[in-house]
């Protein structure tokens, strides 16, 4: 640590790790983890989301899990919430999970054809 | 960077350690591994979160869910239900006293909601052994800021403008103390952290050292720059081994990262810090005694002036501040003095940490803005008095302080309002007492404490407190005499005006304060040989209420003195001559038939 600049760089890098405790996340990614969801592969979906989000170094995202949302045949379900806006993706396998991170979270584009129609 | 979708914070403050949080933590880690969640869930050990009576506790992010009173077995549900499936484990959530509904997240608990955490901003939230977590929370930014942008004079002006006053007891303006030291002639100069924390019942300094040691190191370095010192000492009592260890770890990390040592941030500023472990004598917290102890001499006070700002360590100008005072410095620099002085009251700026203890539902550590009414601290945050008992008084300021009775519950707590009531802020211990506490006995407890801790250097303190204690002992044993109160008052005045150091000068305070607010209790003890609170063993008599007694015989079976007799199903009686006043019978009786007079 030779200068204040070095400290700032280090801080910016470390902040992503601790921001989860400051509850300042703008985006919540929620994976439905009922028994049905887990049976349909929600664990793999969750793991892929974690890998992808951390490899792309995206900050201020809360990745959480909920119980069954009552749409068992469409599991695994992933909901993305930003501000008041909520998008629900259905049948999210690992490949879709990767795409969702890259296109929705990084580029801000909703992938309409995978979302739940009623919403 | 490694990302975890959830952080599980396990409180490892003193309270939780004593309720075995370590076993809970190991079970939690084992369950997380068993479920294959090791790479997704991070378990973080933190310093004290505050609600000590609820321990062991964990706090789960990002949702902020708070689980309390955990046993190792409970962690299986937390992992499989909450962390895996996202379902709350209802039975482990907090349920506030007197309320039926549970509160899931910490920010909805009255205990946390009403606090303003400045000094405790990181305590309970970060891993105290990780300099990275401190840096992520803007750690060492304040040091960087002063070294790159401020002149030493500007640092002192900022601290002066903030209105910060010392949190170690007397409330002396911190900026002014730094200025005196900066201007004093004499070299080298020193920076000292007073972490002796001798007040019975106080543990805020310990919690900060154990929960956020870097905040103190950073602040000391800032002061070093401001006054022109290159060396700091932290004086910690030996009873705080974990604090010592965490400080050592923190200092080691700083040296490694170049945040202490030579040429910090390439500005040419050098500063290093050494730890000195003290024997844990109350008088060693007094600044001149503490300095003597660091120098390797006996921890005895000397007369002031000269003040340490003029002649401190090895006769050189020295700033000595309390742990909590130090922890306020980095946020003042980062957020500006105006931000700080906007919190609190006219003459008491910022926040104060209190250690709630005694007869109160939520014991623990809380931080509130100066000027928060006592009532809010005791009832809203502290949850009120357990078992439906009546609040009687709160003792503040430890052995140098006094008590505040119920009629002053609306008082806003700051330095000046407490002094007006005949007590002091002190280091922030608040001992709450209910109707079952005898105020004479309480005053005797503190007098006993200072009498034992007196260093013996001067006669008024050594002999005077001993004489006072003898009188107090006589009174609670039922041998008080006419004139005792007047004698106590006379001795108090004599000791206050002639003792050499603060210990002796304040030793009579608990007695004077209880005489001021609870004089009738002294009179009852002396004249009527009666203890109104029913606490002084020698002055109480156990009776059985014949109408309420069912004659179950439980009391006589348990009485160790064989003092109770009676036929089955008939009212029993106690032979006062045989009764040794142990209270067993009263505890055993299921029909509340035994009372104390
Ligand atoms: C008998 C006695 C014991 C004291 N114990 C402590 C203590 O444990 N911790 C502390 O910070 N100050 C203690 N003080 C106050 C210190 O002498 C000194 O005023 C204080 O450390 C200054 O720091 P501050 O300006 O930040 O409050 C004690 C004073 C007396 C008279
Ligand atoms: S007042 Fe008491 S503690 Fe202080 S110097 Fe005198 S004897 Fe020692
Ligand atoms: S325990 Fe209570 S009810 Fe039973 S005999 Fe004793 S006083 Fe009476
Ligand atoms: S107070 Fe103790 S000694 Fe006295 S009657 Fe009750 S049990 Fe017996």
TrEMBL record, chain A:
The keyword Metal-binding applies. The keyword Iron applies. Keywords: Iron, Iron-sulfur, Metal-binding. SUPFAM superfamilies: Thioredoxin-like. GO terms for molecular function: iron-sulfur cluster binding; metal ion binding. InterPro entries: Thioredoxin-like_sf. PANTHER family: NADH-QUINONE OXIDOREDUCTASE SUBUNIT F. This is NADP-reducing hydrogenase, subunit B.
UniProtKB/TrEMBL annotation, chain B:
Coiled coil: none annotated. Signal peptide: none annotated. Keywords: 4Fe-4S, Iron, Iron-sulfur, Metal-binding, Oxidoreductase. One of its GO terms (molecular function) is 4 iron, 4 sulfur cluster binding. Residues 540-569, 570-597 form the 4Fe-4S ferredoxin-type domain. SUPFAM superfamilies: 4Fe-4S ferredoxins (SSF54862), Nqo1 FMN-binding domain-like (SSF142019), Nqo1 middle domain-like (SSF142984), Nqo1C-terminal domain-like (SSF140490), Thioredoxin-like (SSF52833). It holds the Pfam family SLBB. Its EC number is 1.6.99.5. CDD domains: TRX_Fd_family. PANTHER family: NADH-QUINONE OXIDOREDUCTASE SUBUNIT F (PTHR43578:SF3). Belongs to the complex I 51 kDa subunit family. This is NADH dehydrogenase (Quinone). It comes from Desulfofarcimen acetoxidans (strain ATCC 49208 / DSM 771 / KCTC 5769 / VKM B-1644 / 5575) (Desulfotomaculum acetoxidans).
């Amino acid at each position: 640590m030779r200068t204040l600049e070095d400290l700032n760089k280090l801080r910016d890098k470390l902040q992503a790790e601790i921001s989860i405790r400051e509850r300042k996340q703008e985006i919540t990614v929620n994976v439905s983890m009922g028994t049905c969801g887990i049976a349909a592969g929600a664990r793999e979906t969750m793991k892929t989301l974690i890998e992808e989000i951390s490899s792309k170094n995206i900050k201020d995202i809360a990745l959480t899990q909920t119980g069954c949302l009552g749409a068992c045949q469409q599991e695994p379900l992933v909901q993305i919430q930003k501000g008041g806006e909520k998008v629900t993706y259905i049948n999210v396998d690992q490949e879709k999970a990767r795409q969702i991170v890259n296109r929705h979270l990084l580029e801000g584009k909703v992938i309409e054809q995978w979302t739940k129609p009623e919403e | 960077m490694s990302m975890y979708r959830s952080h599980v914070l396990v409180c490892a403050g003193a309270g939780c350690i004593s309720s075995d949080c370590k076993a809970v933590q190991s079970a939690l880690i084992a369950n997380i591994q068993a479920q294959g969640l090791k790479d997704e869930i991070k378990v973080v050990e933190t310093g004290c979160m505050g609600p000590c009576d609820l321990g062991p506790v964990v706090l789960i992010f990002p949702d902020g869910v708070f689980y309390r009173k955990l046993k190792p077995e409970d962690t299986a549900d937390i992992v499989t239900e909450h962390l895996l499936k996202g379902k709350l484990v209802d039975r482990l959530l907090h349920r506030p006293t007197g309320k039926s509904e549970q509160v899931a997240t910490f920010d909805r608990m009255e205990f946390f909601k009403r606090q303003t955490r400045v000094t405790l901003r990181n305590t309970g939230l970060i891993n105290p052994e990780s300099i990275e977590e401190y840096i992520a929370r803007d750690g060492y930014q304040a040091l960087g800021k002063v070294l790159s942008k401020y002149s030493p004079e500007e640092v002192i002006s900022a601290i002066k403008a903030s209105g910060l006053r010392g949190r170690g007891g007397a409330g002396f303006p911190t900026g002014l103390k730094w200025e005196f030291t900066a201007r004093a002639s004499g070299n080298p100069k020193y920076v000292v952290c007073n972490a002796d924390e001798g007040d019975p019942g106080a543990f805020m300094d310990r919690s900060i050292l154990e929960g956020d040691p870097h905040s103190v190191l950073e602040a000391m370095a800032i002061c070093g720059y401001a006054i022109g010192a290159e060396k700091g000492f932290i004086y910690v009592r030996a009873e705080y081994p974990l604090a010592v260890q965490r400080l050592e770890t923190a200092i080691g990390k700083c040296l490694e990262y170049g945040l202490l040592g030579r040429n910090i941030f390439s500005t040419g500023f050098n500063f290093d810090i050494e730890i000195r472990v003290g024997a844990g004598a109350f008088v060693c917290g007094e600044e001149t005694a503490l300095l003597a102890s660091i120098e390797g001499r006996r921890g005895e006070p000397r007369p002031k002036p000269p003040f340490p700002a003029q002649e401190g360590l090895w006769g050189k100008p020295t700033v000595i501040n309390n742990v909590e005072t130090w922890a306020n410095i980095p946020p003042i620099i980062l957020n500006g003095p105006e931000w700080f002085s906007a919190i609190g009251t006219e003459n008491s700026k910022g926040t104060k940490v209190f250690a709630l203890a005694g007869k109160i539902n939520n014991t623990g550590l809380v931080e509130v803005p100066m000027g928060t009414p006592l009532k809010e601290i005791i009832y809203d945050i502290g949850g009120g008095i357990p078992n439906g008992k009546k609040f009687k008084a709160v003792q503040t300021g430890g052995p140098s302080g006094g008590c505040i009775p119920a009629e002053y519950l609306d008082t806003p707590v700051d330095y000046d309002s407490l002094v007006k009531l005949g007590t002091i802020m002190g280091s922030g211990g608040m001992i709450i007492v209910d109707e079952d506490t005898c105020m004479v006995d309480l005053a005797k407890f503190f007098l006993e404490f200072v009498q034992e801790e007196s260093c013996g250097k001067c006669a008024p303190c050594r002999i005077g407190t001993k004489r006072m204690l003898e009188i107090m002992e006589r009174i609670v044993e039922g041998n008080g005499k006419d004139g005792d109160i007047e004698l106590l008052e006379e001795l108090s005045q004599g000791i206050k005006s002639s003792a050499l150091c603060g210990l002796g000068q304040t030793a009579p305070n608990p007695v004077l304060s209880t005489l001021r607010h609870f004089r009738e209790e002294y009179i009852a003890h002396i004249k009527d040989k009666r203890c109104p609170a029913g606490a002084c063993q020698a002055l109480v008599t156990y009776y059985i209420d014949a109408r309420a007694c069912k004659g179950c015989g439980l009391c006589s079976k348990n009485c160790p003195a064989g003092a109770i007799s009676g036929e089955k199903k008939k009212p029993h009686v106690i032979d006062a001559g045989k009764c040794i006043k142990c209270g067993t019978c009263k505890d055993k009786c299921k029909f509340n038939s035994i009372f104390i007079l």
